[in-house]
Amino acid sequence: MDFLLKLLRMPATLAALIGDHLIGPVLLRAAGVQHGNGLVLVGSPVIRMKPGGTIRLGRQVALYSRPTSNPLLLNTPCGLRLLETGARITIGDHCALSGTVICSAKSVEIGNHVLIGANSRISDSDFHPLSAEARRMDRNKGVASKPVVIKDDVFIGSGAFILKGTILETGCVVGAGAVVSGTFPPNSIIAGNPARVIKTLDVQETPL
Fold first, then answer.
1. I need a surface site. Which of 26, 180, 182, 205 has the fewest CB within 10 A?
2. Domain coordinates of the chain in residue numbers?
3. Are 58 and 96 in contact (CB under 8 A)?
4. CA 87, CA 50: separation in Å to the nearest integer?
5. Shortest CA distance to 61 belongs to which of 33, 19, 88, 84?
6. How far apart are CA 200 and CA 159, in angstroms?
7. Could you read off the pLDDT of 39-88 as tens digits, one per residue?
8. DSSP bridge partners of 195
9. Dihedral angle sign, alpha carbons of residues 152, 109, 169, 178
């Protein structure tokens, strides 16, 4: 029975392998995404470019977009979306994202060795004006945006939302479901809504 089930799954598995390893990277480059060696795609990410904008992935970046590619199951594929002309998204080397959506009106910069848990969101924009009067006049004009910087070795837990202007210094850990805004010092453990520092990691005790 197990053998028959494996046979039945083989066409779908083969198609997924071809899509992930051969077709996916070609489509990514065709969409204008720059990437380094060792790109790993599991499922198809959603890309939205803008004139003059850039999306750049470093070496050994993994984008997990298939619902079953994470034990928590993914609500959406990875999304890399530029909102304004000249916006940019930069992801460093050896990063892994699972069902993560990143929206950039100006700049979202992610360092090296960053892990982003299932179904997290990062945006440097409010998407709409905060003023009710301004929204009535034009809900897409006068939108506040401020760059997001996530430095090396940050770990962002499942379902976190990183808001505009956030700076996560090296080694920060963000708890699941946190809503994060502000600047956080290195090796901070951050949790809650609004997120705050609940502990500072002792680097001497951190396993290699």
1. 205
2. 2-200
3. no
4. 7
5. 33
6. 21
7. 999 999 999 999 999 999 999 999 999 999 999 999 999 999 999 999 99
8. 192
9. negative
> Which of 151, 143, 147 lies closest to 113 in space, CA to CA?
151
The pair of three-digit structure tokens given for residue 61, joined into one six-digit string: 């970046």
Q: CA-to-CA distance for 155 and 205, rounded, in angstroms?
A: 17
Fold of 2-200: UDP N-Acetylglucosamine Acyltransferase; domain 1 (2.160.10)
CB 139, CB 128: distance < 8 Å: yes
pTM: 0.89
Amino acid identity at 51:
P
How many Å apart are CA 83 and CA 124, to the nearest integer?
A: 10
Which strands, in side-by-side order, build the sheet including 40-42? 40-42, 62-64, 96-98, 115-116, 155-156, 173-174, 188-192, 195-200
Exposed / middle / buried, residue 104 (Cβ in 10 Å: 0-12, 13-18, 19+): buried
Stated as kind and residue range, the H or E segment containing 146 is none
